[in-house]
Every structure is written in C-alpha cells, then in structure tokens.
Design a protein that fits this description.
Elements lengths: L1 E8 L5 E8 L2 H10 L3 E7 L2 H4 L18 H16 L4 H11 L3 H15 L4 H5 L8 H13 L2 H25 L1 H29 L8 H36 L1 H13 L3 H22 L4 H11 L3 H15 L5 H7 L4 H13 L2 H51 L7
Helix pairs in contact: 3-4, 3-8, 4-5, 7-8, 8-12, 8-17, 9-10, 9-17, 11-12, 12-13, 12-17, 13-14, 15-16, 16-17
C-alpha cells in the first residue's frame, strides 16, 4: 500500500485536499469516486522529493509571459478531468483558479472565466491571451467545442504537450553535466591565467629569450587576459548582440537556419526534431477535427527553423491545389525519406493521423537516442579538451622552470 496526496471536488463542488492509502493510482482514483469526490490531481507520497529537479519548462510555441508550459499542461489536464466529470465550464474554471499554484496563471484563469461568463466560448476567451495559449492550442479547443468533444480534444492536447515537454526536459537535463563540466574547466583556466601564472612571471622576468616559446605564449596570454579582459568581454558582447540582431531580420534568419540544417551532425538532428514536431502537431490536429489545410498553417507557425517553415508553406499551397501530402514533402528535399514513406502509406490506407503520430513517436525516440550518443561522446571530449589545456599550461611552466639551469649568469 502506498500513500497518495490528492486534490478533489466533493459532491457540493467544494475543493478538498487530503491523503489516502491505495495499491496504486487507479485504486486511489476509485476510492475517491466511491466517496463521491471527483479527483483533480493525485501525487504519490514523496513525489515532490523524488521528482525534485531544475525546472527547464519553457513555452513550446511562443513567449508565455512568465507562465511555464508545465503549468499550462497541468491546467489542460485538470480542465479535462473536471469537464469529463460533468462540471460546468465556469465551475471548472473557478476550481482551477483555486488549485493552480502559479499566481500569474491564476490571473489568466480569472480573465478567461470572466470572458466565458460574459457569453464567449472558451476558445475565444483563451485567444485573448496569445502569450499563454498558442494559436495551435486555441484552434484545437475551438475544434473540440464545434464537435462537442472538448474533453477528448483536451486529452489529446495534454498528451501532445506532455510528449513535447518530455523531449524538451530530457534535452535540457542531458546538458546539465556537460555545461557544469565546461563551466568548472573554464573557471579553473581563468584562475590559472589570472592568479597562478602571474606568480611565475616574476620568476621568469629576467630570463629573456631563455624561456621556451610555449611559456612566452602563455605569459603573453596571461598578461592580455589580466590587462584587457574588459575589451575581450566587450568584443564578445558586441559580437553576440550583432549576430542576434542580424538573425532577427528575415534574411539573416533564413541564412542562419539554412546553415544549421546543412551542418553534418547537428543538421540531421534538427531535421529529425522538426519532423517529430511536424508529425505530432499535424496528427493531433487532424485527429481533433481540424482540417488539414488549417493544420498545415498552424504547423508552419510552430516550426523553429525558417527554411523548414517555408517548405511547409509550399507543401500547404500544393495540398490546397489537390496534391497528396507526401508528394510535396518528398520534393521539398528536407524531411527524412522514411518519414515520407510512412506518411504515404497512411494516405493510401486512410489512416493519415495515426501514421503521423507513429512517425512522431519514431523520431522522438530517434532524437532521444541520438542525443544520448552525442552526450556520451561530448563528456569525454570535454574532459580531454580541458585536460589538454591544463596539461599545456602545466608543461609550459615546468619547461620554463627546468630551463632556468640553462640561463648563463
């Protein structure tokens, strides 16, 4: 038996919190239903401790105005649960306003509730907050409202957000150790150049040309870092700002993205990531009742690579003219051939949305495995690189010390 903490709504519509013991999460849900309560959220005992980790949540589509995508995911899951239990929309939003932990999201929910109570649909109310609810999110909700299947669409939307969040969190988590290693190594090198080597420079000051060339290079580098570190940081800052401003332009963004997808290893990874995003988004939209042309327009918006986004626009235009989806995708020359073949099979069998979701699963797993391999190679490469730099510094200093005996007096 395990202990679970829960938030639920009782028969009178009041939000309650508590804990119970059950053999599993499903058993805990059954206990709450048996007592006449509607479970909103259930967490196993120790979840907060075992799940404690850095929050790498960020918006999947646009700037979320301070609300994390994880908060939006939980909101979507809880709203679906309450609507499936038969609660009215305004009552469900009132409960979610009480249960959410994000103060910023509370304000958004209150705004949505006020709009719904004024007679607007949920999708129209959400559309007033584009930084929180993306066009894709709003259009899926609108499709669910039109077809009378809003809880089912919210379930698909939750699955969609959860899968993408899992990939994002994995990538961020996988980069923690390499980033830490690089930071520690960089700080160590800076300390040696600014504090340790200058101590040796006093000893070598009167040696002239007797010290080895590598030591003279190292002493010069140390002197430059100590004397002109501000100029170096200023140069780096100006360079970064200039590149970012150029990339913000339409021409710069297009050229930068074109370079990225042509890179030997990184380019293939970007194509796989975009293929997974394309397939999961379009498959989820079609499955939720959104027309394919409208779905392609929404997919184009969430593509992070401008070259691929432009290709999606061309694909949409040709699908609008009556062509099958797989043909313009293949002629674009960007997406993986295997994905295109799977999509073609889906069109022929009439199961396009299922095949798109299967393509998404395949490439999400492929991306995860590829990142694992890259990280497994990156860590020893960083260790080796830092070791070579530190080794060069140490050997250069030792060679200078040994060369003292060769100096004539």
């Amino acid at each position: 038996m395990a202990r679970y903490y829960y938030k639920a709504v009782d028969a009178s519509g009041r939000l309650i919190r508590g804990s119970l013991e059950a053999e599993g999460e499903k058993a805990a849900v059954a206990q709450l239903h048996a007592s006449g309560c509607i479970p909103v959220r259930i967490k196993p005992h120790g979840f907060l401790h075992k799940g404690l980790q850095l929050d790498f949540s960020f918006n999947l589509f646009s700037d979320m105005g301070g609300v994390s995508s994880r908060d939006v995911l939980l909101f979507t899951q809880d709203l679906r649960t309450l609507l499936e239990a038969g609660l009215a929309m305004d009552r469900a939003l009132i409960i979610l306003n009480d249960t959410t932990e994000s103060e910023k999201l509370k304000g958004i929910i209150r705004g949505v509730l006020k709009s719904v109570q004024s007679g607007n649909s949920l999708s129209d109310a959400m559309n007033q907050y584009p930084k929180i609810f993306s066009p894709l999110y709003v259009n899926m909700v609108r499709a669910g409202e039109s077809g009378g299947i809003l809880p089912e669409v919210l379930a698909r939307l939750s699955e969609f957000l959860e899968n993408i969040q899992k990939v994002k969190d994995y990538i961020k988590s996988a980069l923690i150790y390499p980033a830490f290693l690089l930071s520690v190594g960089g700080i160590s090198i800076i300390i040696m150049l600014t504090f340790v080597i200058p101590k040796f420079s006093i000893i070598f000051a009167d040696m002239g040309q007797a010290i080895p060339a590598s030591t003279r290079l190292l002493l010069g580098l140390s002197e430059f870092v100590r004397g002109y570190w501000w100029a170096f940081l200023l140069f780096i800052g100006l360079f970064v700002v200039s590149v970012r401003q150029y990339v913000k332009t339409e021409t710069g963004r297009l050229k930068f993205d074109a370079v990225k997808i042509r890179m030997p290893v990184w380019g293939d990874l970007i194509k796989c990531v975009e293929m997974a995003r394309f397939s999961r988004t379009l498959g989820t939209l079609i499955r939720s009742g959104v027309p394919i042309l409208q779905g392609l327009s929404l997919v184009r918006v969430i593509m992070t690579n401008q070259v691929i986004a432009d290709s999606v626009k061309e694909v949409r235009d040709r699908v609008k003219e009556g062509e099958k989806l797989s043909l313009p995708l293949n002629q674009a020359g960007i997406f993986p051939p295997l994905a295109i073949q799977m999509i073609s099979v889906g069109e022929e069998t009439g199961n396009l949305e299922k095949m798109l979701l299967r393509v998404a699963e395949y490439y999400e797993d492929h991306v995860e495995n590829k990142i694992k391999r890259m990280i497994s190679l990156l860590e020893p490469a960083l260790i080796l690189g830092m070791g070579l730099v530190v080794g060069f510094i140490v050997i250069s200093m030792l060679m200078a010390v040994f060369s003292i005996n060769e100096v004539g007096f």
